[in-house]
Design brief:
This protein has about 325 residues and is α/β, with parallel strands linked by helices. The chain has two domains: about 170 residues, Quinone Oxidoreductase, Chain A, domain 1, CATH 3.90.180.10; about 130 residues, 3-Layer(aba) Sandwich (Rossmann fold). About 30% of the residues lie in helices and about 30% in strands. Strands 3, 5, 6, 9, 10, 17 and 18 form a seven-stranded mixed beta sheet that branches. It has a six-stranded parallel beta sheet with strand order 13-12-11-14-15-16, with helices on both faces. Strand 15, helix 9 and strand 16 form a beta-alpha-beta unit. Helix 4 packs across helix 5 and helix 4 crosses helix 10. It is globular, with a radius of gyration of 20 Å. The two termini are about 15 Å apart. The relative contact order is 0.15. The model has no long low-confidence stretch (mean pLDDT about 95).
Length: about 325
């Protein structure tokens, strides 16, 4: 038997005993050691995640050790591993284009199926990677960083380009980090000064701008009226996503990392006048996970600064509500199982 943390209904977390899963022939049984808490988990707890049915075991930012591997596998018991949590089908139109991140039949751990806030998890071998050269705490942060790395790769940032990241939560932080590593001149925009300070102090953001009535003027002044070559939205707010179109310069690119349950509208004359490139960015691909691990090994990711909070699985029901308050100052919280 094992401990598993169940979100039985919005606002209700229960630690219960469950049987240890029996892996299928192509699955790896993982002894989960670390789980990153992300915005998706908080939406599930609040009851605002649109793709989820309760009860659900949350958790998709996962690191652990191999407990059992299929015959002939490159993995062996005791190997430290991380999980790519987007269970793709491998056969749909997106998968055939090597875009499993937007698989037509995707099953995301912790959302569409039970995730890793449990002592053990069985996952198809193709979604398990060795966590070589990184700690378990770092391995549990690979997934959210990969989302930012994927968005930056989509944008094809050239050295010296002006880059705006709107929303300095964990995903925006990841985008700012990898935009900076690509040589972008990065401006972070957020309403929270603590998040902006983090971007400046730990990511090397070139400029930070607070969201207020003078935001557009401040961004114009920073760029000499040209606005930005590339803008990313990581706010999860429909109005902010709409406002961001005005921050993209002529010939620029706008990348929507956020997803919201709403229609997004924009001025077509302005869109065409600027010949704006509009991109959606969803999840991440194996190449993005590899890029994050490489950057971690090279010491280019401030993992100690990112990892701001910690708890055990048993403690999470008590501490999670407080972590969701802005005053808690959470960047990335890691749960030990």
């Amino acid at each position: 038997m094992m401990d598993a943390l169940i979100c039985a209904a919005p606002g209700r977390l229960i630690l219960e005993r469950r049987p240890i899963p029996t892996p299928a022939g192509d699955e790896v049984l993982i002894r989960v050691r670390r789980v990153g808490v992300c915005g998706t988990d908080m939406h599930i707890f609040r009851g605002t995640q649109p793709f989820l049915a309760y009860p659900r075991v949350m958790g998709h930012e996962l690191a652990g050790e191999v407990a059992r591997a299929p015959a002939g596998s490159d993995l062996a018991p005791g190997d430290p591993v991380y999980v790519m949590p987007y269970m793709s089908c491998g056969t749909c139109a997106a998968c055939r284009k090597a875009k499993p991140n937007c698989c037509m039949n995707i099953q995301v751990l912790g959302v569409h199926r039970d995730g890793g806030m449990a002592e053990y998890l069985a996952v198809p071998e193709g979604f398990v990677r060795k966590a070589e050269g990184v700690s378990l705490d770092e391995a549990a942060m690979i997934e959210f960083l990969a989302i930012g790395a994927h968005a930056v790769r989509r944008a094809r940032i050239a050295p010296g380009q002006s880059v705006l990241v709107v929303g300095a939560g964990p995903i925006g932080i990841a985008a700012a980090l990898f935009a900076k590593l690509q040589g972008g001149v990065v401006t972070a925009l957020d309403s929270r000064q603590d998040r902006l300070d983090f971007c400046r102090d730990h990511l090397g953001a070139d400029h930070i701008v607070s969201l207020n009535d003078d935001t557009r003027r401040a961004l114009s002044d920073l760029t000499g009226g040209d606005f930005f070559d590339v803008a990313f939205d990581a706010t999860g707010n429909a109005k902010a996503m709409e406002a961001g179109f005005a921050y993209v310069g002529h010939g620029g690119t706008y990348v929507l990392i956020s997803v919201v349950g709403a229609d997004i509208t924009f001025s077509d004359p302005e869109f065409h006048k600027r010949e704006t490139t509009l991109l959606g960015s969803r999840n991440a691909t194996p190449e993005d996970f590899d890029a994050v691990v490489e950057a971690m090994r090279a010491g280019k990711v401030p993992t100690k600064a990112l990892n701001t909070h910690a708890a055990t699985l048993a403690q999470l029901p008590e501490v999670l509500p407080g972590w969701m308050e802005p005053r808690a100052g959470v960047i990335k919280a890691i749960v030990s199982c």
